[in-house]
Amino acid sequence: MRDSRIAGSYDSDNVFKCLPPGMPAMMNMAYGMEVMQTKDKITFFSELNDALRRVYLDGRKPPPEILDDPTYAGYSTGRWEGDTLVVDTVALRDNTFIEGFTPHSERMTIRERIRFVEPGLLEDQITVTDPEALLKPWETVKRYRKASYPNDQLREFACAEGMEHVK
Fold this sequence. Notes:
Layout: H1 2-6, E1 33-37, E2 41-46, E3 52-56, H2 64-67, E4 75-81, E5 84-90, E6 109-118, E7 121-129, E8 138-145
C-alpha cells in the first residue's frame, strides 16, 4: 500500500473507493459530524462516506471475536475523568492511514481526550501508539465548532453513485 501511495496511486485510498477513512483520520470530520449520547454510549456520525463510530461507556471490554475482526472505526470504550471523556480504541483495520498518508500495523491503538474548551467548541486530543510503525506516539489536536441552523444537518454522502469510473 505504501509503495502505491509513493508512486502517486490512489488505488489504496479508502476514501477514494467510497470506504470509511478509518481511525483516527475519520475524526478530521471535514464534512461535519453529529454526536448522540445515551447513558451507555456516544455515537459519532460523519457525513464523509456516512461513517459512524460508537464509544461504549458501560465498562465493557472488547471480546476476542471483536479483536479478531478489526473494523475501520475500531472498537472504542470510554470513561469520564471529570469533564473529559477518555476514549481507548483498538481492533483497527491495518489497511487505513493514520492521517491520510501514514500507514500503521494491526497493533495500533488510539487514546483520545475529548472535552469542551468553551461553549460550543469541542477539543479532541488524539494520541496514536503503534510499536511496529511508529518510533514514538503520534499526537494531534482536533477542534470542532458547533454549527447553527441551517448548517447543523448532515446530508447523505452518496459516494457509491460516482464509482462507475473506478475500475
